[in-house]
Amino acid sequence: MELKQFLQLFNPLPGNRYLQVTTSIDETTKALYDLLENKDGELRIAYYADEELDISEQFPHAKIQYVKNFIHPFRAMPRDHDMVIIKDLFSLHHNPEILLKTAYTTLANTAEIIIMEKKGTMNVEAIKELLEKLEYRVGNYIDVLPEYDLVIAKKMHMWGNGL
């Protein structure tokens, strides 16, 4: 997987915290972890899995949360993250809106959300409409990974939810 263009979507500053909410730990997780480590930032992982796999060796400085099923949302503190990346989960979750609402609450003002799904899995226009409905702005489709469709949007302070 060529990650150079993918990593250009991110410009972390020291102290930034990114959260990857995912069903699969892969090269994108490792690349984000390394990027944030090099910038004195922190990658947090909300890992949806049937059983807890020990990935702490692979990501020794990451905070890892395990979520057992597709009914529950991940947990995160309000305004605690500078980026949320929802990967390989959106189409599987029983209530994708709760994922977006939880992400909205945990994102800092003007922070961004990225939804990543395997190519052809998600209806990009429907996702952009849902993001708009839930007060995310500037929703865009970005084609930077051959295996994934990506939609990125921004939380804008005081543009609706006011969080």
Plain-language structure description:
The protein has 163 residues and is α/β, with parallel strands linked by helices. The chain has one domain: 3-Layer(aba) Sandwich (Rossmann fold). Helices cover 23% and strands 32% of the residues. The chain contains 4 helices and 7 strands, in the order αβαβββαβαββ. Strands 3-2-1-4-5-7-6 form a 7-stranded mixed β-sheet. It is globular and about 40 Å long. It starts with a helix and ends in an 8-residue tail after the last strand.
CATH class descriptor: Alpha Beta
Q: Could you state the CATH homologous superfamily?
A: Vaccinia Virus protein VP39
Average pLDDT number: 92
CATH topology term: Rossmann fold
H/E topology pattern = HEHEEEHEHEE
**Unreliable segments of 5+ consecutive residues:** none
Strand order of the largest sheet: 3-2-1-4-5-7-6
Radius of gyration over alpha carbons? Answer: 15 Å
Shape: globular
Q: Largest sheet, if any? A: 7 strands, mixed
β-strand amount: 25-35%
Number of helices: 4
End-to-end Cα distance, whole Å, is 36 Å
Q: What is the SS-derived class? A: alpha/beta
Give the tally of structural domains.
1
Helix content: 10-25%
At CATH level 2, the architecture is 3-Layer(aba) Sandwich
Number of strands: 7
State the gist of this model.
With 163 residues, the chain is an alpha/beta fold.
Name its key features.
single chain, 163 residues, alpha/beta, Rossmann fold, 7-stranded mixed β-sheet
Secondary structure blueprint with pairings:
Elements: H1 4-7, E1 17-22, H2 27-38, E2 42-48, E3 63-67, E4 81-87, H3 96-106, E5 107-118, H4 124-133, E6 136-142, E7 148-155
Parallel strand pairs: 1-2, 1-4, 2-3, 4-5
Antiparallel strand pairs: 5-7, 6-7
